[in-house]
Specification:
Number of helices: 14
CATH topology of the largest domain: TIM Barrel
Shape: globular
Strand content: 5-15%
CATH superfamily of the largest domain: Aldolase class I
Largest sheet: 8 strands, parallel, barrel
Bound molecules: flavin mononucleotide
Strand order of the largest sheet: 1-2-3-4-5-6-7-8
Structural class: alpha/beta
Number of domains: 2
CATH architecture of the largest domain: Alpha-Beta Barrel
Number of strands: 10
Protein backbone atom coordinates (compact mmCIF):
# COMPACT_ATOMS: atom_id res chain seq x y z
CA UNK A 1 0.00 0.00 0.00
CA UNK A 2 1.36 3.42 -0.90
CA UNK A 3 1.87 6.20 1.63
CA UNK A 4 0.05 9.22 0.16
CA UNK A 5 0.65 12.58 1.84
CA UNK A 6 0.39 16.28 1.01
CA UNK A 7 4.05 16.10 -0.08
CA UNK A 8 3.71 13.10 -2.42
CA UNK A 9 0.70 14.84 -3.98
CA UNK A 10 2.31 18.28 -4.21
CA UNK A 11 5.52 17.05 -5.85
CA UNK A 12 4.25 13.99 -7.74
CA UNK A 13 6.64 11.57 -6.02
CA UNK A 14 5.98 7.88 -5.34
CA UNK A 15 7.26 7.80 -1.75
CA UNK A 16 7.35 10.40 1.07
CA UNK A 17 11.18 10.27 1.13
CA UNK A 18 13.47 13.22 0.42
CA UNK A 19 17.25 13.50 0.15
CA UNK A 20 18.22 17.05 1.17
CA UNK A 21 21.05 19.09 -0.33
CA UNK A 22 24.52 17.95 0.72
CA UNK A 23 27.84 19.69 0.12
CA UNK A 24 30.25 17.28 -1.54
CA UNK A 25 27.53 14.68 -2.10
CA UNK A 26 24.53 16.22 -3.88
CA UNK A 27 25.69 15.65 -7.47
CA UNK A 28 23.47 14.83 -10.43
CA UNK A 29 24.10 11.06 -10.59
CA UNK A 30 22.94 10.58 -6.99
CA UNK A 31 19.95 12.90 -7.45
CA UNK A 32 18.90 10.96 -10.56
CA UNK A 33 19.28 7.62 -8.74
CA UNK A 34 17.14 8.95 -5.88
CA UNK A 35 14.49 10.13 -8.35
CA UNK A 36 14.51 6.80 -10.20
CA UNK A 37 14.03 5.07 -6.82
CA UNK A 38 10.80 7.06 -6.32
CA UNK A 39 12.13 9.64 -3.84
CA UNK A 40 12.96 13.35 -4.20
CA UNK A 41 16.60 14.47 -4.36
CA UNK A 42 18.27 17.87 -4.58
CA UNK A 43 21.35 19.00 -6.52
CA UNK A 44 23.42 21.18 -4.17
CA UNK A 45 23.87 24.44 -6.07
CA UNK A 46 26.84 26.01 -4.29
CA UNK A 47 29.14 23.17 -5.42
CA UNK A 48 28.89 24.67 -8.92
CA UNK A 49 30.79 27.85 -9.78
CA UNK A 50 28.07 29.50 -11.90
CA UNK A 51 24.47 29.38 -13.03
CA UNK A 52 25.67 27.84 -16.32
CA UNK A 53 27.48 25.00 -14.50
CA UNK A 54 24.38 24.35 -12.38
CA UNK A 55 22.25 24.29 -15.54
CA UNK A 56 24.59 21.64 -17.03
CA UNK A 57 24.12 19.49 -13.92
CA UNK A 58 20.33 19.91 -14.13
CA UNK A 59 20.47 18.86 -17.80
CA UNK A 60 22.59 15.84 -16.82
CA UNK A 61 19.89 14.69 -14.36
CA UNK A 62 17.22 15.30 -17.00
CA UNK A 63 19.17 12.94 -19.27
CA UNK A 64 19.06 10.22 -16.60
CA UNK A 65 15.47 10.46 -15.33
CA UNK A 66 12.04 11.83 -16.20
CA UNK A 67 11.02 11.91 -12.53
CA UNK A 68 10.85 15.03 -10.31
CA UNK A 69 13.96 16.43 -8.61
CA UNK A 70 15.07 19.83 -7.32
CA UNK A 71 17.93 22.16 -6.39
CA UNK A 72 19.14 23.10 -2.90
CA UNK A 73 20.15 26.71 -2.24
CA UNK A 74 22.07 26.94 1.03
CA UNK A 75 21.94 30.64 1.89
CA UNK A 76 24.87 31.13 4.25
CA UNK A 77 27.41 33.94 4.52
CA UNK A 78 30.58 33.02 2.66
CA UNK A 79 34.05 34.55 2.27
CA UNK A 80 33.83 34.11 -1.51
CA UNK A 81 30.61 35.52 -3.02
CA UNK A 82 28.17 32.81 -4.18
CA UNK A 83 26.17 33.52 -7.40
CA UNK A 84 22.70 32.91 -5.91
CA UNK A 85 20.92 35.10 -8.49
CA UNK A 86 22.50 33.08 -11.32
CA UNK A 87 21.42 29.83 -9.66
CA UNK A 88 17.85 31.16 -9.30
CA UNK A 89 17.76 32.09 -12.99
CA UNK A 90 19.19 28.68 -14.01
CA UNK A 91 16.52 26.90 -11.96
CA UNK A 92 13.71 28.96 -13.46
CA UNK A 93 15.07 28.75 -17.03
CA UNK A 94 15.40 24.97 -16.67
CA UNK A 95 11.73 24.73 -15.75
CA UNK A 96 12.44 22.99 -12.43
CA UNK A 97 9.55 23.41 -9.97
CA UNK A 98 11.10 22.38 -6.63
CA UNK A 99 13.72 24.18 -4.54
CA UNK A 100 15.01 23.41 -1.05
CA UNK A 101 16.45 26.39 0.82
CA UNK A 102 18.46 26.41 4.05
CA UNK A 103 20.32 28.98 6.12
CA UNK A 104 18.59 32.35 6.07
CA UNK A 105 15.01 32.71 4.78
CA UNK A 106 14.89 32.94 0.95
CA UNK A 107 12.93 36.23 1.10
CA UNK A 108 14.64 37.93 -1.88
CA UNK A 109 14.22 34.86 -4.13
CA UNK A 110 10.58 34.11 -3.36
CA UNK A 111 8.86 36.58 -5.73
CA UNK A 112 10.68 35.17 -8.79
CA UNK A 113 10.09 31.58 -7.69
CA UNK A 114 6.38 32.27 -7.05
CA UNK A 115 5.99 33.85 -10.47
CA UNK A 116 7.61 30.81 -12.11
CA UNK A 117 5.48 28.33 -10.12
CA UNK A 118 8.48 26.98 -8.19
CA UNK A 119 7.57 25.50 -4.79
CA UNK A 120 10.02 26.18 -1.95
CA UNK A 121 10.80 23.79 0.91
CA UNK A 122 12.64 25.76 3.61
CA UNK A 123 14.77 23.91 6.13
CA UNK A 124 14.56 25.32 9.68
CA UNK A 125 15.73 24.28 13.14
CA UNK A 126 13.07 25.99 15.31
CA UNK A 127 9.32 26.53 15.47
CA UNK A 128 9.72 30.33 15.48
CA UNK A 129 11.86 30.38 12.34
CA UNK A 130 9.41 27.99 10.64
CA UNK A 131 6.48 30.32 11.43
CA UNK A 132 8.41 33.30 10.16
CA UNK A 133 9.40 31.53 6.90
CA UNK A 134 5.77 30.55 6.25
CA UNK A 135 4.68 34.16 6.84
CA UNK A 136 7.26 35.16 4.21
CA UNK A 137 5.72 32.72 1.72
CA UNK A 138 7.61 29.38 1.65
CA UNK A 139 5.38 26.41 0.75
CA UNK A 140 6.80 23.61 2.92
CA UNK A 141 8.88 23.45 6.12
CA UNK A 142 11.57 20.81 6.57
CA UNK A 143 12.20 20.79 10.31
CA UNK A 144 15.69 19.66 11.29
CA UNK A 145 16.04 18.14 14.78
CA UNK A 146 19.14 18.25 16.96
CA UNK A 147 20.12 14.77 15.71
CA UNK A 148 20.85 15.98 12.18
CA UNK A 149 24.10 16.17 10.26
CA UNK A 150 25.23 19.68 9.39
CA UNK A 151 23.67 22.67 11.14
CA UNK A 152 21.19 21.81 13.94
CA UNK A 153 20.92 25.43 15.18
CA UNK A 154 21.52 26.46 18.78
CA UNK A 155 18.33 25.32 20.57
CA UNK A 156 19.20 21.61 20.97
CA UNK A 157 15.63 20.27 20.64
CA UNK A 158 15.31 16.69 19.42
CA UNK A 159 12.95 15.86 16.55
CA UNK A 160 10.51 13.88 18.72
CA UNK A 161 9.41 17.20 20.29
CA UNK A 162 10.36 19.67 17.54
CA UNK A 163 8.37 17.89 14.82
CA UNK A 164 4.93 17.76 16.50
CA UNK A 165 5.49 21.26 17.93
CA UNK A 166 6.03 22.53 14.37
CA UNK A 167 3.05 20.54 13.05
CA UNK A 168 0.84 22.09 15.77
CA UNK A 169 2.10 25.60 15.03
CA UNK A 170 1.58 25.27 11.25
CA UNK A 171 -1.41 22.99 10.61
CA UNK A 172 -1.91 24.27 7.05
CA UNK A 173 1.71 23.77 5.94
CA UNK A 174 3.13 20.42 4.82
CA UNK A 175 6.01 19.49 7.16
CA UNK A 176 9.06 17.33 6.43
CA UNK A 177 10.73 15.48 9.33
CA UNK A 178 14.51 15.88 9.13
CA UNK A 179 17.34 14.70 11.36
CA UNK A 180 17.85 11.14 12.59
CA UNK A 181 15.61 9.59 9.93
CA UNK A 182 17.12 6.44 8.44
CA UNK A 183 14.63 3.62 7.93
CA UNK A 184 11.00 2.51 7.70
CA UNK A 185 10.50 2.86 11.45
CA UNK A 186 11.60 6.50 11.26
CA UNK A 187 9.18 7.08 8.40
CA UNK A 188 6.13 5.64 10.21
CA UNK A 189 7.07 7.47 13.43
CA UNK A 190 7.42 10.77 11.55
CA UNK A 191 4.06 10.30 9.84
CA UNK A 192 2.51 9.47 13.24
CA UNK A 193 3.90 12.74 14.61
CA UNK A 194 2.21 14.65 11.80
CA UNK A 195 4.91 14.87 9.11
CA UNK A 196 4.12 14.59 5.40
CA UNK A 197 7.56 13.19 4.48
CA UNK A 198 11.01 12.44 5.84
CA UNK A 199 14.30 14.03 4.81
CA UNK A 200 17.46 11.93 5.03
CA UNK A 201 21.03 13.10 4.58
CA UNK A 202 23.49 10.74 6.29
CA UNK A 203 21.49 7.67 5.15
CA UNK A 204 21.91 8.60 1.46
CA UNK A 205 25.68 9.16 1.93
CA UNK A 206 26.01 5.41 2.54
CA UNK A 207 24.64 4.37 -0.85
CA UNK A 208 26.39 2.97 -3.91
CA UNK A 209 25.66 6.05 -6.03
CA UNK A 210 26.98 8.67 -3.54
CA UNK A 211 30.22 10.05 -4.98
CA UNK A 212 32.15 9.89 -1.68
CA UNK A 213 35.13 7.76 -0.72
CA UNK A 214 34.28 4.10 0.16
CA UNK A 215 36.18 4.50 3.45
CA UNK A 216 33.75 7.25 4.50
CA UNK A 217 30.73 5.08 3.66
CA UNK A 218 32.25 2.20 5.65
CA UNK A 219 32.94 4.52 8.59
CA UNK A 220 29.27 5.63 8.60
CA UNK A 221 28.27 1.94 8.83
CA UNK A 222 30.71 1.34 11.71
CA UNK A 223 29.88 4.52 13.65
CA UNK A 224 27.29 4.57 16.44
CA UNK A 225 25.02 7.31 17.77
CA UNK A 226 27.95 8.43 19.94
CA UNK A 227 30.29 9.05 17.04
CA UNK A 228 29.39 12.64 16.17
CA UNK A 229 30.85 15.86 17.56
CA UNK A 230 29.39 19.38 17.72
CA UNK A 231 31.82 22.02 16.44
CA UNK A 232 31.30 25.79 16.25
CA UNK A 233 29.25 25.98 19.46
CA UNK A 234 31.16 28.97 20.86
CA UNK A 235 30.63 30.85 17.55
CA UNK A 236 26.86 30.11 17.57
CA UNK A 237 27.35 28.33 14.26
CA UNK A 238 27.05 24.75 15.44
CA UNK A 239 27.67 21.86 13.05
CA UNK A 240 27.28 18.15 13.76
CA UNK A 241 30.15 16.25 12.16
CA UNK A 242 31.64 12.77 12.38
CA UNK A 243 33.81 12.10 15.42
CA UNK A 244 37.46 11.89 14.41
CA UNK A 245 40.87 13.25 15.39
CA UNK A 246 40.23 16.64 13.74
CA UNK A 247 36.68 17.25 15.02
CA UNK A 248 37.69 16.29 18.57
CA UNK A 249 40.63 18.71 18.40
CA UNK A 250 38.37 21.53 17.13
CA UNK A 251 35.81 20.90 19.90
CA UNK A 252 38.62 20.89 22.46
CA UNK A 253 40.00 24.24 21.23
CA UNK A 254 36.49 25.72 21.20
CA UNK A 255 35.86 24.76 24.82
CA UNK A 256 37.71 28.03 25.50
CA UNK A 257 34.93 30.56 24.74
CA UNK A 258 37.43 33.29 23.83
CA UNK A 259 38.65 31.40 20.74
CA UNK A 260 37.65 32.66 17.27
CA UNK A 261 37.26 30.99 13.88
CA UNK A 262 40.89 31.83 13.12
CA UNK A 263 41.94 29.40 15.86
CA UNK A 264 40.33 26.48 13.99
CA UNK A 265 40.36 27.77 10.40
CA UNK A 266 43.03 25.35 9.20
CA UNK A 267 41.48 22.32 10.93
CA UNK A 268 37.97 23.18 9.63
CA UNK A 269 39.17 23.93 6.08
CA UNK A 270 36.95 22.51 3.33
CA UNK A 271 39.98 22.22 1.03
CA UNK A 272 41.80 20.06 3.60
CA UNK A 273 38.74 17.76 3.91
CA UNK A 274 38.35 17.51 0.12
CA UNK A 275 41.90 16.22 -0.33
CA UNK A 276 42.37 14.12 2.83
CA UNK A 277 38.87 12.70 3.32
CA UNK A 278 37.18 12.82 -0.10
CA UNK A 279 40.16 11.98 -2.32
CA UNK A 280 42.50 9.97 -0.09
CA UNK A 281 39.83 8.32 2.07
CA UNK A 282 41.53 9.29 5.33
CA UNK A 283 38.48 9.47 7.62
CA UNK A 284 40.62 11.20 10.28
CA UNK A 285 42.04 13.74 7.86
CA UNK A 286 39.47 16.55 8.08
CA UNK A 287 35.94 17.57 9.03
CA UNK A 288 32.97 15.78 7.41
CA UNK A 289 29.27 16.08 8.24
CA UNK A 290 27.40 13.10 9.68
CA UNK A 291 24.35 12.71 11.92
CA UNK A 292 23.36 10.52 14.85
CA UNK A 293 21.39 8.35 12.39
CA UNK A 294 24.74 6.63 11.72
CA UNK A 295 23.61 4.28 14.52
CA UNK A 296 20.82 2.98 12.27
CA UNK A 297 22.89 2.53 9.11
CA UNK A 298 24.25 -0.99 8.57
CA UNK A 299 24.62 -1.34 4.80
CA UNK A 300 25.62 0.45 1.59
CA UNK A 301 22.76 -0.35 -0.81
CA UNK A 302 21.83 1.23 -4.12
CA UNK A 303 19.28 4.05 -3.83
CA UNK A 304 16.67 1.77 -5.37
CA UNK A 305 17.30 -0.94 -2.76
CA UNK A 306 17.38 1.64 0.04
CA UNK A 307 14.03 3.23 -0.84
CA UNK A 308 12.44 -0.20 -1.39
CA UNK A 309 13.76 -1.42 1.99
CA UNK A 310 12.49 1.69 3.79
CA UNK A 311 9.03 1.33 2.25
CA UNK A 312 8.86 -2.43 2.99
CA UNK A 313 9.87 -1.87 6.60
CA UNK A 314 7.38 1.00 6.94
CA UNK A 315 4.63 -1.26 5.62
CA UNK A 316 5.60 -4.04 8.06
CA UNK A 317 5.60 -1.58 10.97
CA UNK A 318 2.20 -0.24 9.95
CA UNK A 319 0.75 -3.79 9.76
CA UNK A 320 2.19 -4.60 13.17
CA UNK A 321 0.56 -1.49 14.68
CA UNK A 322 -2.73 -2.33 12.95
CA UNK A 323 -2.60 -5.90 14.33
CA UNK A 324 -1.86 -4.73 17.86
CA UNK A 325 -4.75 -2.25 17.68
CA UNK A 326 -7.23 -4.88 16.43
C1 LIG B 1 27.70 15.33 4.09
C2 LIG B 1 26.53 16.26 4.35
C3 LIG B 1 26.55 17.53 3.79
C4 LIG B 1 25.46 18.40 3.98
N1 LIG B 1 25.46 19.62 3.37
C5 LIG B 1 24.33 20.40 3.41
C6 LIG B 1 24.25 21.60 2.65
O1 LIG B 1 25.18 21.99 1.97
N2 LIG B 1 23.09 22.30 2.70
C7 LIG B 1 22.01 21.89 3.45
O2 LIG B 1 20.98 22.56 3.43
N3 LIG B 1 22.08 20.77 4.20
C8 LIG B 1 23.19 20.02 4.19
N4 LIG B 1 23.24 18.83 4.88
C9 LIG B 1 22.06 18.45 5.71
C10 LIG B 1 21.11 17.50 4.97
O3 LIG B 1 20.51 18.09 3.86
C11 LIG B 1 19.97 17.05 5.91
O4 LIG B 1 19.21 18.16 6.34
C12 LIG B 1 20.51 16.32 7.15
O5 LIG B 1 21.56 15.45 6.79
C13 LIG B 1 19.39 15.54 7.83
O6 LIG B 1 19.87 14.86 8.92
P1 LIG B 1 20.38 13.31 8.87
O7 LIG B 1 21.76 13.37 8.38
O8 LIG B 1 20.25 12.88 10.28
O9 LIG B 1 19.48 12.57 7.93
C14 LIG B 1 24.34 17.98 4.75
C15 LIG B 1 24.36 16.68 5.33
C16 LIG B 1 25.42 15.83 5.13
C17 LIG B 1 25.40 14.46 5.74
Amino acid sequence: MAFKTRITEMFGIETPIIMGGMTGVGYGELVAAVAEAGALGFITAHMFPSGAALKEEIDKVRGLTNKPFGVNLTLLPSINPIPYDEYREAIIESGLKIVETAGRAPTDHLPAFKEAGVRVIHKCTSVRHSESAVRKGVDVISIDGFECAGHPGEDDVGLIVLLPATVDALPDTPIVASGGMADGRSLVAALALGADAVNMGTRFCATQEARIHPNVKQKIVENTELDTVLVGRNLRNTARVARNAVSERVAEIQRDPSTTFDDVRELMSGARARVAVDQQGDVDGGIWSSGQSQALIHDIPTCKELVANIMAQAEAVRSKIDRSAA
